[in-house]
Amino acid sequence: MDRGSYAVNSISLDNHETLAASVGDRGPTVVLVHGLGLDWRMWRPVMDQLARGRRVIAYDLRGDGEPFTMTDAAADLFGVLDAFDVPQAHVVGLSFGGAIAQTAAVTNPGRFASLSLLATTDIPFAGFENRARSAEVDGMAAQLEPSLSRWFTASALAADGAGVRYAREQVLRGSPAAWAAAWRAFSGLDVRGRLADFPAPALVLAGEADVSTTPELMRQIAAGIPGSTFRELPAAPHMQTLECPDAVAAALDEFLPQR
Fold first, then answer.
1. Percent of the chain with pLDDT strictly greater than 70
2. Is 116 helix (H, G, I), strand (E, B) or coil?
3. How far apart (Å, rounded) are the C-alpha atoms in residues 183 and 70?
4. For residue 131, how far is the Cα from the chain centroid?
5. What are the DSSP E strand ranges found in 26-119?
6. Could you give the CA distance from residue 174 to residue 135 in angstroms, rounded to a whole number?
């Protein structure tokens, strides 16, 4: 997956530089937060549709291998908003990105015009530390099979399409230190029960075939955000944008306002 026709620029955050891609020049601002081990290009299959009547920004999460916390990651999200001079945005996060979005929404809900949570969790899983340790001990090749089998359906893996190939490349080229730092940050997630007073519209988008963050878990998240909209995408796995981009784009397009 290349950069396509998007404007991709380096932006300065509090203590590091990162890349941010943008498309669309008018309408409400939508900020996309990607999953662990991937980068902003995870969103490419849906960005063009979302950019019709909106300004869409996707950025790379920190990945230098230094330890960080979910609070640090939430501060990075606010830093991206500040870099683009956006006081309030429609924030969309998938998996780890959804955990970051929730952390930021707890920290400063006023920066959110809406919150969309895709294939994520509001509590850390016991296996997160094991995944961190495995990268440090066994290397990134050992993360490939368990990661891809969590992220995609068996049929998608057999077809080996562009989304699967991109994810495989990202895992294999990843740094064990960065992988471990992200999983350890994820282990500090602390948002369950803390979005009951979230003031903006919220969408919770589950994948019917998601074996990682199941529809049952996603329903619990929706129940903790009164007034939120819950949707389940038929046959969708964990990495919704990489296997079912049209369904994801349609659901977000319906939820997010346009100019």
1. 98
2. strand
3. 10
4. 18
5. 29-33, 55-59, 89-94, 112-118
6. 10
Tens-place pLDDT, residues 230-243: 999 999 999 999 99
Beta strands (DSSP E) in 101-250 are: 112-118, 202-207, 229-233
- The tokens of 187 are what? 């282990």
* Residues 209, 232: Cα–Cα separation, whole Å: 10
Tokens matching residue 222: 């929706």
Q: Tell me: pLDDT of 1 over 90.
A: no
Which pLDDT band, with edges at 50, 70 and 90, does 254 fall under? very high
Contact indicator for 221, 248 with CB cutoff of 8 Å: no
| pLDDT at 4 > cutoff 80 | no
Q: What's the Cα-to-Cα distance from 38 to each of 175, 204, 221, 226, rounded to whole Å? A: 11, 21, 23, 31
Query: d(Cα 232, Cα 142) in Å, to the nearest integer?
Result: 31
Instruction: Return the H-helix or E-strand segment holding 9.
Output: strand 7-12
Is the overall model pTM greater than 0.90, yes or no?
A: yes
Q: At what angle do helices 176-186 and 96-107 cross, to 10 degrees?
A: 50
Name the token pair of 82: 């500040």
